[in-house]
Each structure stands twice: as C-alpha cells, then as structure tokens.
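sry for the spam today, last one i promise. struct tokens for design, 604 residues
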C-alpha cells in the first residue's frame, strides 16, 4: 500500500462547506418546515380525535406524513453532512458547534414525532378505514400502525418533551464523550524499531497484524490504555444505561429488551428461536477456535485474545486500495451487474473515506445522504482482506439505500430496522467470500479466505451473544446501583467464558470490550448487537435461496431491499417462504457456516 494513500470522501456536492450559504439556507428551510408542522400539530391535528369524521382524519394524517417526509429529507442530509466531519476529525471545532446547534433542531423534530405518534395512538381504532381514504396514508400503513403501537409506551406529552430536551445533557453528552475519548487518545507504540503515537482505533486494528509479537504487544498496550481511560467510560456507560432504565420504567416497558425488539421489527419468539439456534452452535464455533489455536502453535488448543483475529493461511497479501476496489467489483459482478455498476460508481464518485488518521473514529459505517440520493462509507483501510471485506459490507448498505432510492421510496418508507439493515451488507460479504473461495489455487489460499470468513462469523454469533449477555446483566444491575469499571470488566469476562468456552485461553480474555464498542453507548437503541446476528443468519439464508434460484432471485431481492421499512421482518421473510419464528431457519443458516468450519478444520 505504499504508493497511494487510501482515499477520503468528497462531500462537496452536498454543500460547499459548513459555513456556506447553501448549508445556512437548508437549515433555515428545515426550521421553517418544523415551525409549520408545530403549528399544524398544535392546531388542526389537536382539533381532531377518535370521534372526528374519517375523511378529516385521513387528510390530517396524510398532511402529517407529507410534512414529516420533507423534514426527514433535509434532516437526514444535514445530519450526514455534519457527521462526515465529526466522524473523520474529532478536532474540528466548527463541526462540533454545528452538530450541537443541529442537535437542538433535531430535538424539536423528535418532539413533534412524539406528539404525532400520541395522536395516531388516539385514533388507532380508525386506522384500517382511514388509511384507504388518502393516497399518502395508503402509502404508509406500516408507519401508522407502528406509531400507534409505539404510542402505547409513552409518558405524558410533557414528560416526553422534557426527556427529549434533557437527553442532550444526559445520554447524548455521554455518547459524545465516549466517542471523543476513544478516538482522540493515542499511545506511544514501538513498531519496526520506531516509537510512534498510535490512535486507539489503529491500535485495535493490530489484532489482525501478521506478526504475533506485534499482536501481543498491541493487546498489552490496549489493556493499559483502557485501564487509564476506564473511569470516564464507565461513567458514560452508567449514565446511558441509567437513563434508558429510568425512561423504560416510566414508559411501561417490560424491560430494556422490549423497546429494542419493537424497534427491530421483530418479536421475542423470533429472537428466542434465533438465540436458541445460536447457543446450539457454540460447540461448532469452539471447534474452529481450537483448530485456529493449534495452527498458531498454542498447544493447549486455546486462543489468547490477541490471536482471535490473527490471520491464518496466506492472507499476508496486502491489498492496495486500487486492488481492493478491483477485487470487490469483480466479485459483485458475479452476483449482479447492477450491484457491480453501483459499487463502481461509489468508488469513482469518492463516496468512501478509507484512510486511517488521528481524530477519525474507528470501525466502519455507511450513511445515506438523502438530499443527493447517495450514500457515504467510512472505514479504516489497512490493506488486510478483513478491511477489504468491510468495504464490501458497507457498500452493501449503500446498495440497500440505492434500491430504496431508485424505487422512489419516501423517507418514512425507508426507515429500516437494524435487523434488516444488515441483510444487504451480509449478502455482499457472502458474495465476496463465496466468489473468492471458488477462485483459490491452493489450500493455503483457501485457508486464508475461510479464516477471514469464520473470524467474522464467529464474532457475529459468539462474540455478539457475549455482548448480549453483557448488556442484559448491565441493564439488570444498573437498576439497583451504578457499576464500577471493575464490575463491568467482570461481567464482560463472564460473558466471554459463557460463549467462547474452551475456545479461548481463560488467562487472556478481553475484559475491556465494553470501553470502545460504540454500540453500548447508544441510548436510542439498546442491545445494538443481536441485529448483526439476525443480519448474518438472515442474509446467509437468503444466499442459500439465491444459490438455488440463481439470477431470477436478484429482482425479488432488490424489491425486498426497497421495502425493508414497510413491513415486519417476519412478513418480509414470509415472501420468501421463510418462517423466522421457527428455530429451523436459523439452524439451517448456521449449518451453512458449519460446513465451512468443517472445511477449515480439515485443511492440513
Ligand atoms: Zn453493517
């Protein structure tokens, strides 16, 4: 990767800059739309109730939907634009100020949505009839029914308003603190005889470094750093989980999981069916961990944490960014020319920010920029097959967005739950994986590809389940008292032992996983973990159908992606003849992964 630096993204077609007239004009327009909706909500909307005539109700619901779509379009665009600076440069003061200003505006939108949901809840009984009376309500039935359902778990309007305002100085502030602390902290680290300042995300990425000594030293440096940072991070965790518990209790939720599964558009039956299949699969994954440990020379057959992500086989190939692009486009092309053409466009239009640098957040994500009908992808590209796959994954999200954009879906229709949001990304990962396995020339290459795939899958099943166990216990114990950093570490270790079992060396677990995974620090979405498992297993199940049906599957698939905001996961799955409340579907997907584990174990 020597000659060319991985690229940064280009945002200039969205606005010229944060201080531009164009940005200011959109902000002014957004505020004016919010004021119009505020007046509407306080006036015409409040004058109607369950006893009003259906025609007026339908028109009012239709007006509210239309206003909301307009507001969400600008809000989504501005949020993404600000995020493009904040996520890549946490030192950018102007962006932080703009974000903070924008948070105030976003809260007004949130408050309006709460009032609208409450009103929809009041007229819930009339929904089946009124939906038919207006083109706009007809286009958004799922949104209306979901709003009515959500309204059952709301505090009084005044309390909801106060909670939304206070979240800015509560959970939102904690979330920001966690992001800033983990992205800005750098530690001196010696590599290739040179001591360099290494930001935490780059240090974490050393987990997949080809040199075992570097991985081990990285692990030790990481542990030391987290020990230094543990107090502010534990405070952030306590602040967020405490706030979520308080609000859930006030809203009449059964537990912290309750709101999460509603937001995921699934139910407990589905989740338990999936979890049960996952628990059954742990011995299979432990077989993979043990085989990997042996390959890396750990005679006890147990992996120390620093080797969980170690490359195995001939994956020491380092990709340049240009090679990564070529590889991805080729593999996508085998699935569908549309997917490949789309990805090419994303690369060539500078939608991807891949360079690692200080102040940039770790990990990867994709965001839609609705105002320009595009997406942007952030990742920390280091040339490993793992980070190549990550680009493929994130481009899957972008493709998902594109399917909805091309189908002219409204902003409301596009609101996809986390569970289904991972479908396309996992499909893209699977496409890359299967296509590249077909092309291997020898066992060592095969081993490297299987390794990358299984390292990822075992994270999504085994590690994700440990994160679920961790978060469940944190929520339960946070009800009684705050948790110290040490207690959080204990809960994490316990969760890792329960899932990885004898696949991990119990002397070298990673008790600090809770410090840097941003998912634990989202007050708006608790249990930001199982949706990944859902996505992997759902995507794998769909891939199996693609293998059976071939090309004629692709059109159905594109339509499914365009509709993920318009039905429950179970209803969407039913279109493919899949019953996700049955354990069998999940077990079958895990079996597909199991055949790869078998293959892995048997390669000499
Ligand atoms: Zn994803």
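last one done:
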């Amino acid at each position: 990767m020597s000659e060319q630096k991985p690229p940064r993204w280009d945002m200039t077609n969205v606005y010229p800059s944060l201080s531009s007239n164009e940005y200011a004009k959109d902000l002014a327009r957004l505020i004016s739309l919010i004021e119009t909706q505020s007046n509407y909500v306080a006036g015409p909307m409040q004058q109607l109730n369950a006893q009003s005539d259906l025609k007026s109700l339908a028109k009012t619901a239709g007006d509210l939907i239309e206003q909301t779509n307009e507001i969400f379009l600008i809000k989504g665009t501005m949020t993404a634009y600000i995020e493009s600076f904040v996520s890549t440069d946490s030192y950018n003061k102007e962006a932080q100020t703009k974000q903070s200003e924008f948070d105030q505006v976003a809260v007004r939108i949130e408050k309006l949505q709460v009032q609208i949901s409450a009103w929809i809840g009041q007229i819930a009984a009339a929904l089946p009839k009124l939906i038919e009376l207006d083109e706009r309500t007809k286009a958004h039935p799922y949104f209306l029914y979901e709003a009515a359902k959500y309204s059952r778990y709301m505090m009084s309007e005044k309390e909801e308003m106060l909670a939304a305002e206070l979240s800015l100085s509560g959970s939102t502030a904690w979330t920001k603190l966690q992001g800033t602390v983990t992205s800005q902290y750098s530690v001196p680290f010696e590599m290739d005889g040179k001591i360099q300042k290494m930001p935490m995300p780059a240090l974490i990425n050393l987990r997949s470094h080809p040199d075992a000594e570097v991985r081990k030293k990285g692990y030790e440096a990481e542990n030391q750093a987290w020990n230094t940072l543990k107090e502010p991070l534990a405070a952030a965790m306590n602040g967020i989980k405490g706030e979520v518990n308080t609000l859930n209790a006030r809203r009449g939720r059964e537990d912290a999981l309750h709101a999460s599964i509603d937001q995921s558009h699934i139910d407990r039956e589905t989740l338990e069916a999936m979890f049960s299949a996952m628990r059954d699969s742990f011995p299979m994954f432990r077989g993979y961990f043990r085989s990997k440990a042996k390959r890396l020379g750990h005679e006890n057959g147990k992996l120390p944490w620093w080797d969980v992500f170690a490359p195995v086989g001939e994956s020491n190939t380092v990709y340049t960014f240009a090679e990564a692009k070529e590889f991805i486009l080729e593999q996508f092309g085998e699935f569908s020319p549309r997917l490949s053409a789309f990805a090419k466009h994303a690369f060539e239009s500078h939608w991807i920010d891949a360079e690692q640098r200080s102040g940039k957040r770790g990990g990867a994500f994709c965001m839609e920029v609705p105002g320009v009908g595009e997406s942007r992808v952030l990742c920390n590209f280091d040339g490993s097959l793992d980070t190549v796959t990550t680009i493929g994954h994130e481009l899957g999200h972008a493709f998902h967005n594109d399917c909805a954009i091309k189908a002219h879906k409204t902003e409301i229709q596009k609101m996809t739950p986390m569970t289904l949001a991972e479908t396309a990304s996992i499909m893209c990962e699977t496409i890359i994986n299967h296509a590249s396995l077909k092309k291997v020339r020898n066992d060592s290459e095969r081993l490297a590809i299987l390794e990358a795939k299984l390292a990822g899958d075992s994270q999504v099943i085994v590690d994700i389940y440990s994160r679920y166990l961790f978060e469940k216990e944190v929520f339960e114990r946070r009800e009684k008292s705050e948790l110290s950093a040490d207690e959080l570490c204990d809960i994490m270790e316990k969760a890792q032992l329960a899932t990885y079992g004898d696949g991990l060396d119990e002397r070298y677990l990673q008790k600090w996983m809770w410090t840097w995974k941003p998912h634990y620090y989202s007050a708006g979405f608790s249990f930001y973990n199982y949706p990944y498992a859902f996505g992997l297993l759902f995507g794998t199940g769909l891939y199996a159908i693609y293998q059976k049906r071939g090309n004629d599957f692709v059109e159905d698939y594109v339509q499914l992606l365009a509709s993920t905001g318009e039905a429950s996961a179970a209803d969407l799955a039913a279109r493919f003849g899949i019953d996700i409340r049955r354990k069998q579907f999940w077990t079958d997907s895990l079996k597909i992964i199991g055949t790869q584990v078998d293959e892995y174990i048997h390669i000499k």
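DSSP finds 23 helices and five strands in the chain. ok im logging off now
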